[in-house]
Each structure stands twice: as C-alpha cells, then as structure tokens.
Design a protein that fits this description.
By secondary structure, the chain is mainly alpha-helical. It is built from five helices and two strands; from the N terminus they run H-H-H-H-E-E-H. The chain has a domain at about 40-100.
C-alpha cells in the first residue's frame, strides 16, 4: 500500500515490513486529530505519555501500548513482532502526518 510506504519509508526495506503491512491493513483504522488549547498543555507530549514506548513490553501499566499491544511469532514472515496498538505523531511530524492522512483536496 502506497500510503504505508510513504508513511514508513525507513522501514520499507526492513525484513519486517511485509508483516507490518499485513498487520496495518488487517482491519479498520481510526484516524484522529487531537487538539487541546490551554496554557502549559502539550497535546503531542500528552499522547506520547499515554501511548508509551513503541515496544509494549517496555511500557507501564495504564499506557495504551502496554495494555493493548502484544508480541507474537509470525510463521508467514518468520520472526517475533509486536502489535503496539496505536500510532502517534512525533512532535516534528505532526503537520506532515495531518497533511498525509487528511488532505485538503
């Protein structure tokens, strides 16, 4: 899928890209733009804290990736992989990712 190649260019040549693509296209996806205005509030950092680390095993109880992610062995693409249950933008990528997934035209 072209949008996955555009969104994850650094992983396109990785051994796990076929398994990742299969996972990311295996069901519905909910896309959201979260915004909150207020003094001393950073919505991106708040979602980073709520999501937890990419690897679910490294997260804390109460973080989305820890509580809902999992590790699994994929016999079709031999190797151990993880579902991390949520993608969130890194601070410097917010505008680019909004434009990618919510084009104005």
């Amino acid at each position: 899928m072209d949008i996955l190649r555009e969104h994850y260019p650094k992983y396109v040549q990785a051994d796990f890209f076929p398994a990742m693509t299969e996972y990311l296209t295996s069901g519905p996806v909910v896309l959201l733009i979260l915004e909150r205005k207020g003094k001393n509030f950073d919505p991106v950092q708040s979602l980073i804290d709520l999501s937890g680390p990419t690897d679910p095993k490294k997260g804390l109880l109460g973080q989305i990736r820890h509580d809902f992610g999992l590790h699994y062995y994929d016999p079709k693409h031999p190797g151990w992989y993880f579902y991390n249950a949520i993608h969130r933008s890194d601070p410097g990528e917010v505008a680019t990712e909004i434009a990618r997934f919510f084009p104005k035209d």
